Amino acid sequence: MKPHSDQPPAATPTTAGTSAAGGQRLEVTHAEMNAAHVSGEAVPFTETILWLVRYDNSWWVVYDHGWLRITDTLTAADLDNRASWTGPQHSGSVGDPHGEP
Fold first, then answer.
1. What is the pLDDT of residue 22?
2. Residues 6 or more apart from 89 whose CB is under 8 A from it?
3. What contacts 79, CB < 8 A, 6 or more positions away?
4. Lower CB count within 10 Å: N or C terminus of the chain?
5. d(Cα 96, Cα 87) in Å, to the nearest integer?
6. What per-residue string of b and e applies to 45-58 under the rule 16 or more CB within 10 Å gives b?
7. pTM recorded for the entire structure
8. pLDDT digits over 66-99, tens only?
9. Taking 60 as the threshold, does the pLDDT of residue 101 lie above it?
10. What element of type H or E holds 93?
């Protein structure tokens, strides 16, 4: 039997591109997101909420080492719904609750 330790287990470092069960990347680098923003593939939630972005058919949130995919389906659905209220920047990526593009 292994002796008990008061020390927490060592953190396992993650790398950009770590995949979820469905094969989707869970993390991207700042450089990749910056390039996606420049090309128009990444769209901020609003003009003032730049830390939340629609990219690669998902919502992403920024953190110190890159961007993390939001995988919770209810949260993603709520963001899609709210984004449809914020303006035309999301009209091609999320559904409009009123049936308009």
1. 72
2. 43, 44
3. 45, 52, 59, 70
4. N
5. 10
6. beeeeeebbbbbeb
7. 0.67
8. 999 999 999 999 999 998 886 555 544 444 333 3
9. no
10. none
